[in-house]
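Posting for a labmate who doesn't have an account.
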Amino acid sequence: MMKVNNSDITTWALPENAIARLGKGSVRDVAFSPDGIHLAVATDIGVWWYELAKMEPVALWETERGMVSATAFSNDGRWIATGDADGIVKVLDIQNQQYIVEIGQRERFNRGIAQLRFSPDGQYLAASRYHFAPISVWPAKTEVPILNFTVEAPKRRYGSLPFPICFSHNETLFAYMSCDNEILVKQIETGEQIAHFTVRSPQVDSLVFSPCGQFLTAGIPKRESGGQTVEVYIWNILKETVETAIEYSGYQVRLAYSSEGSLRVADIYEDEVVIWNASEREKLDTFEHRGHTGAARFSNDGQQFAIASARDFHVWDADTAHVASLSGHLSLANSVVFSQEDQVLMSGYGEGSGIVFWDILQKQVKRRFQTNTELNNTKRWTSMSSSEEFLATSFLKTIEIWSVPSGTRFSEFVESQAVSVTAFSPTGKHFVSTTSDGVLHVWDAQRWEKLHALTGHTGWIRSIDFHPDGQQLVSASDDKTVRVWDVEHGSLITLLSLTPPSDANLYKGDAKEIERTLEAVSKGQKSRDKEIWNITFSACRKLIAGGIEREIRLWDAKTYETHMVILPPEESRRPFALAFSPCGRYLTSGTWWCPGFDKVSIRLWEIASGENIATFWGHSTDVQDLAFSSDGTLLASGGFDGTILLWDMKPYTQLG
């Protein structure tokens, strides 16, 4: 394995103009090397290689696209396969770092790879996909599948369920889930069906053959009014009968057979993992592990087990009964905020990663707040007061208020509706929270009492921002309106127009796109309602910017008239993250991912001319938030990929 000489992992495989990457990306899959020395961790930014003896990364690869959703080693350790969210499978020769084969091509509606498995002799490679797409088996060095197994659409609609697959140890049989209630066993060479087993759940956690090839074992969730458990079934393949059914109390299981033929079961709870020798009904170990499981897997011989969530990442070893921890693999970075001295970057994460304070100079975690209901797999909104005294985070129907200096949560408020975005006024006088019924609640930020409600929106509020003087607030809702409010008096000032203007001088961007837009306006064609995702005031108090599908709209902050309409390029047609530079001369836009592209763009716009003066490509999927340091020299971008990139803006923002 080729190792990286640079010990600063925050600089590995950085995109151009980026100076650091904070976080290692959300985990999608894990795989142990057959010799037990390395762990491959598939993430949204690429594949990390860990040396298990030191629990440290030694390499990072497959970063050109990222979004690696599945990985597997061949049993002899020569090859590793990866599958990504675009449905592309690659096989790499580990020693010479050369690709043996690349299977598939990116299509607009391709199905991402859910699981990859090599046959024990390495002759075959199989892949399952999400969304009930076909399961394929290839000879490991070719692009042409020998078998495509159909996966039937479910009778009821489900989300992105995993589709476990496995080969028998003698390489003759292959098992997979064929629909929402059936597991099939087929002969590889002929495709002949050998056995089928009916199950009562659309989800199967794990699927594995016994070493003798006589039995097939599956972990199947069992949902009842009292909660969820998991039943582990052992089927006799020839008789097509149940040999054993054992119930476990966790919400998921993972399975493996040891080299001696005993069944290992990892029983996964919301706060711990229990490892069993199921053949002897013997509990081998228990260790604490919190968070919704992102990836979990035994080594092929059942001697090692890795489990990752957005909160914890643990590796268990049977020989030593030791549980080691890995850090840095966080969930989506929803929000980024610089401290006033630009020494710390605060980020609110989703899915249990909590709130992280990054030391910018050291490029490492300085503090971490573990917010309430960390096990809930949900998006989280976070805001911090300008004095850096208070921090608010919201999820479901709850708002938590934290004291930043002490790191303690001192208040919790429960609303009758789901809570979305929040914001503190620049003066520190007010705090605003929003609920799913479209109401904005104005609070006294010292006594933590509600003052009044701002009503008028009829849908979920996606974004809010205070005017720098703290007296006005702008809000954007999925009811396709933008409203400006008088916060002090609790009244509506105006609605901002989202209608395409007829003045050609207001448009910037591609000439043909501008021409098409103006032609539609001149013909009186009714434009579809604009969906707006982000809204923000400039620090210089002159402008308001909105991120809209295929458009960045700028309004005059005094007259509320449209000031400029920027039509970004096709690959940046979803500019849903925005930030003005502190000087007010520049605006950055971060886009959500569009099919067909490896990375997403962050564009720097000169406001006076409307020109795109720089473009940065780094995140593998949606940019969630952007923030400038107070001196304008750094830009932080928080990504859905679980990382924050720090960009050097001095070559651009200091030109003026």
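Reply:
Got it, the structure tokens are right above this. The chain is about 0% helix and 50% strand.
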